Predict the 3D structure of the following.
Amino acid sequence: MIEAEAKLMLHVRSAQKLEAVEPALRSAAQRHGAQIISVLHLGQLLRDRQRKPARDAIVFSVCQPDLSAALLAEEMRFAAYLPCRIAAYEEGDGVVLEAIAPTEVCGLLGRPDLEGAALRLETSLLAVMQEASRAVAAAHEPAVAPGGGVGATEEQVALRRVVPQRIDAHGTKVEEIAGTGQHDSAGG
């Protein structure tokens, strides 16, 4: 369901759980040529504070490079708004996704002449939010690799504790200090 609150906010409701929003939003963003730049779990951030929030929210920074570049080329003050932010929070038995409408930013900046470019960004952002809100069934299906087998996508691979290619400030590779990469003996 889509609602407009005085056109200021893009508002999409979803039946899925809060923890299912991130993978759905990443996948939807990728299909629309956008990228999730950062994810901020407000509940975790505020957990150490004395007054913990009653509800949790996750804030996603979403960048649509081509559309953002067009706006920045015309008005650099758009940098205060870009990348776009989508807030996800539980409400009732579902999740709400909300973002500030990019066309509203044109009014805030006194640049109504940029509403056409901002509308393209707004349309794309809304499409990402709508697709992510419907991704409940898709989240439970295994990813199918192009060869037909089940495989992991880039978003599904955990990169924690990965050995970096360069291990020091001089650009040394692990392979350079570990040996030649050949067997030490020719035995069998």
Summary: Helices lie at 21-31, 42-46, 65-74, 102-108, 115-133, 136-139, 174-178. DSSP finds seven helices and six strands in the chain.
